[in-house]
Amino acid sequence: MTKYIFSQDHKMIAKQYLITGLFMGIIGIAMSLLFRIQLAWPEQSFTIFEVILGKWAPEGVMDPNVYLALVTIHGTIMVFFVLTAGLSGTFSNLLIPLQIGARDMASGLLNMISFWLFFLSSTIMIASLFVEAGPAAAGWTIYPPLSALPQAQPGSGLGMTLWLVSMAIFIASSLLGSLNYIVTVINLRTKGMSMSRLPLTIWAFFVTAIIGVVSFPVLLSAALLLIMDRSFGTSFFLSDIFIQGEVLHYQGGSPVLYEHLFWFLGHPEVYIVLLPALGITSEIIATNSRKPIFGYRAMVASILAIAFLSTIVWGHHMFISGMNPFLGSVFTFTTLLIAIPSAVKAFNYITTLWKGNLQLNPAMLFSIGLVSTFISGGLTGIILGDSTLDINVHDTYFVVAHFHLVMGISALYGLFAGVYHWFPKMFGKMMNKNLGYVHFWVTAVCAYGVFFPMHFIGMAGLPRRYYTNTNFPYFDDIADINIVISLFAFAAGAAQLVFLYNFIHSIFYGKAAEQNPWKSNTMEWTTPVEHMHGNWPGEIPEVHRWAYDYSKPGQEEDWVSQIVPLKEGEEELQH
Amino acid sequence: MTAILTLTVLVLIGISIWQISKMFDLSQTERNTSQVANDNDNNTQGKLMFAFLVFIYLLTLYSFYAWGDVLLPEAASEHGSQYDNLMWISFALIFFVQTVTQALLYYFSYKYRGQKGKKALFYADNDVLEAIWTIIPVITLAGLILYGLYTWTTIMTVEENDEALVVELYAQQFNWKARYSGQDGVLGDANVRFLQDFDGKNQVGIDATDPNGLDDVIVQELHLPVGREIIFKMRSQDVLHSAYMPHFRAQMNCVPGMITEFAFTPVITTDEMRQKPDMIAKVKKINKIRVEKSKALVANGEEALEPYTFDYLLLCNKICGASHYNMQMKIIVETPEEYEKWIAQQPTFAQVIQ
User: How confident is the model at residue B1 (pLDDT cuts 50, 70, 90)?
Assistant: First the structure.
């Protein structure tokens, strides 16, 4: 019981996070496939809708409210439950103690509570799917008044209440986790593990946790104020409303205030999702290139710069919200600055590959894929971050294409890369590489197949969150693009089954892992394959060098573990 | 059509299942072999990396070939051409960077695919390189930011003046109304609390005691005189909506409890736009699609689709509830004479509430 369920061991908690995250991921992706059917063949009858949606799909035709609910919950689950908790929760927990040389997290108890709060919030979110009037359906950003008034849409009743409760618990979980990560990284590094010797994974998790602590509480306050407006008649976000033949009493509130509060978390959230993926990628690309990561200092500096900038750009989601255009100018300026550290990162990854000896393991493929989608998706950010250009593409499919590539697909690739790379550490088994290859290539082709054409529909002016565009003959000529996108989406969904099979099958029947299968320098590979509480059987080893002494001249092997002392006459690289 | 596509999906799913079962066999036999990439894997995967680069380029080319005509329709407002310039400059830049970086990324992945015994170059840092790829983006972005902010300020600076036409866009679940300021050029005060006055005839909640409001005109179809600046004042009575007019490169949210604004000058009338060669081609293409769809509908005993003629659109672009996808209003841009004639025929607020 204390070993598998109420475990305080960081490695077990990491696995719990991963498995819960993957389960939520299955639900989130399945929902997207359902609404892709509707988008490709609008308002047609499908037996699968009748079977899965029941009364919400009378005669097999999806109800518009259900479409909005699916879009909403898909977004919520993917952003928070899969890519925040599933990605950062899993790998922060697994790697922070192992890579800095600690026996466990600073507080095992808080860590356990953090996971169980996450589990509770997942359960509540899933439960909200079975509410009579349906789950929340106001978009994952749940802007009031739509989310505040049950008269405005059925999903804003009990479904929305559960959504808010679930998120409040999720935030508590995230804060406990983040505080734990910060304290652990600051206090529990082993002898010799100076901050400048930390692997980039740890830097990324550390900075991510700081952004989380800074911004998540603001979302909590937004959620609390929204709960007050909904249930106690306050007017924080509501004013002058007439709905269903009735004037409501709200006076003086502003939905724009909610937008500010939401995006004060919402934008940093993008980096809370992305930075851990970039950290994982840095580690995997260096290891598999058999080369030091290029520009370690610049990589750390760009993580810090991105983190800082991420907290002062939220207004670029609100250029046309009615806020003062001068604010729009300021946010355009800060937003486009983010391109600079991002470009530095991308170029450093590419240079790391240059003249490497690339070991193209599945984890490496996903990492290279991440750099690719990070560039493709990031570049269109230059258009969306420009207040002028945003006027015409705001809230169109152009935005959908942009953020899915740059944070959705990239972060998912980071998650997959991490799973393939650290599976031997987590489960003591190897995943099948050939299945990994199939998984990567089908996913990579389909990811571009789904999101590249979406830029075109967006530029044509089609708004997102439309149940169908058949009511606009003007958009009839993009109907076939929607079909192409959906077909790629289904194939991508099928590819994830390959991963799922590989994952589960390998846990039980995979080939037993060696202690250090990828010949990596970092400390987690110096622990025994069999998990033990406290990680190292004897004393915690001392660290003598940075994490990236790959192919160092004068060394026999093309790797040197961080715990190997410098040879006589060997100098540590000034980095 | 649908039947064929559904069939394709089924076939695709079938293939995946078959593939998975094949993998299963593979994984059985490979249990004892190493699951770390060997020279063979590196070679195959490296080549696939290069093939993928080709795939990305081909996908890009094909998309432009097949769907290039749906991109940004011709701008019909004065600031539209400024907007489009900035857009195409940004696009050219993005395309250049995308083409080069993806090429480097995948070419290196192919070129430096691993071989046993080969040793990578120990190359950890180079301040000059770092400086280069920090400074180049800094300069490029400085240019883009300055150009962007200049355009933004031009578009968003709305100055009240006597020549401009003031129009209120009024949003509610799930339709639009427009209110013209009438002879005096001033919109009367309004609030949702007046909506129930006059047995619901007060459609946008005008304060009947404000004399400015009596000559206001409320309509369901937006008529705009060409060549005259239009200052839009947006209101919403229930939830957030967004007034999106893609042909005019115009959008602004409608927020309950506050008035937002956006201004532009239409420069192409609806009739002129219909005569543009690109538009004629587009409408022809759309009607071809509609004729085909109609055949299927008629075969099912349903009504055929009406042929399409082009009109400017006002769409709702902020999720607002079940019928968000069908919250639209037609916009007609016409000559000032046609506009004057049309507006004179519309009843004023005073006439409506009598």
Answer: very low
Of B2, B37, B324, the CB nearest to A361: B37
pTM passes above 0.90: yes
Q: Does some domain include residue A325?
A: yes
The answer to whether the beta carbons of residues B330 and B178 sit under 8 Å apart is no
B74 touches A at CB < 8 Å: no
B177 part of contact set with chain A, CB < 8 Å: no
Residue numbers in B near A322 (CB within 8 A):
234, 252-253, 255, 258, 260
Dihedral (C-alpha) B245, B249, B253, B259: value to the nearest 10 degrees?
A: -100
Q: A300: closest CA among A267, A348, A370?
A: A348
Closest to A195 (Cα-Cα) out of A131, A283, A99: A99
Residue-wise pLDDT for A414-452, tens only, equals 999 999 999 999 999 999 999 999 999 999 999 999 999
- B157 vs A contacts (CB less than 8 Å): 325
Question: Is A545 part of any domain?
Answer: no
| pLDDT above 60: residue A551 | yes
Closest residue in A to B140 (Cα–Cα): A340
CB B139: neighbour CB atoms within 10 A?
9
Q: Per-residue DSSP letters for A415-433?
A: HHHHHHHHHHHHHSBPPPH
Q: CATH no. for residue A508?
A: 1.20.210.10
Smallest Cβ–Cβ distance between A358 and the set B56, B113, B322 belongs to B113
Q: How many separate domains does chain A show?
A: 1
- Domain interval for residue A401: 10-526
pLDDT, tens digit, 9 for 90 and up, residues A57-101: 888 899 999 999 999 999 999 999 999 999 999 999 999 999 999
Mutation site, A358, A429, A521, interface B, largest B CB count within 10 A? A358
Domains and CATH numbers, chain B: 165-272+308-353 (2.60.40.420)
Q: Does A518 touch chain B (CB under 8 A)?
A: yes
DSSP-assigned beta bridge partners for residue B245? B250
